[in-house]
Known about the structure:
Elements: H1 4-12, H2 16-22, E1 24-28, H3 30-37, E2 43-48, H4 50-55, H5 57-61, E3 67-69, H6 72-78, E4 87-92, E5 106-110, H7 116-128, E6 133-137, H8 146-151, E7 160-164, H9 166-174, E8 183-192, E9 202-206, H10 215-218, E10 223-226, H11 238-252
Parallel strand pairs: 2-3, 5-6, 5-9, 6-7, 8-9, 8-10
Antiparallel strand pairs: 1-4, 2-4
Amino acid sequence: xxxxxxxxxxxxxxxxxxxxxxxxxxxxxxxxxxxxxxxxxxxxxxxxxxxxxxxxxxxxxxxxxxxxxxxxxxxxxxxxxxxxxxxxxxxxxxxxxxxxxxxxxxxxxxxxxxxxxxxxxxxxxxxxxxxxxxxxxxxxxxxxxxxxxxxxxxxxxxxxxxxxxxxxxxxxxxxxxxxxxxxxxxxxxxxxxxxxxxxxxxxxxxxxxxxxxxxxxxxxxxxxxxxxxxxxxxxxxxxxxxxxxxxxxxxxx
Length: 253
C-alpha cells in the first residue's frame, strides 16, 4: 500500500507548478514506462503491477531505484490515465539546456503550441523523422505535462528540447558571423512544399494552432513554405502539418 504522503506527492505532479517545484514528472502506461527505463532519464520511484513485472523482469531488476508492486486500482487512482494496468514512474526532469542545429541537421522551433496532445504528437513525429532538437517558446505547452508524455508514445526519451525566448534565439542566429542558417516557416501562403528543395540543415518554425507564427517571429523567417490544399478544409492540424513538411524535407534534402 502506498502511504498518504506518496499519494499526495504523485498526484501533485499532475500540475505544472509542482513539477517545476520538485523537478519531477509522471510517465504512465506500459509502452512509455518501458521506454523511460531504457533511457538516460533518472527515476525516483517505479510503481508496477505484478503482471507488468512478470513481463519485464530483466528490465525492472536492473533499476537502482525503488520498485513497488501496486494494484491496478491504485495506479489509476494516483495517475492521470483513465486506464492503466501496467506501470507509473516518477522521473526527474532534465536541465533546460540551449540547443543549436548542427550543420547536418534540421531542428524544430515551436511558436506558442498550446495543446499538449499536439505537442506530444510533434515529439513522436520528430522522432520518426530523426529530428533530435526542439526549441520551444515560453508559451508552448509544458513538455512534462502527462498528456504530452502519453501522446509522445515514448518518443520524449529520444528528443531534446529547450524552452526560452525564441525571438532572442532567432536574433542571435541571425547575427552568426559564419552565416545565418535557413529558417523555414509554415504559412498559408508560401512556396509550395512539393516544389521546394530543402537544405540539409536549418530550422523549421511551426506556429500556434489558431493564429500561426507571430509577427515578431515571422521577421526572421528566410523561407516561407506552405502545404497546398486541394479541397475545402480551412486548415491542417499542426501535428499533421509538421509531419508533411518533415517528410518533404527528408525526400528532397
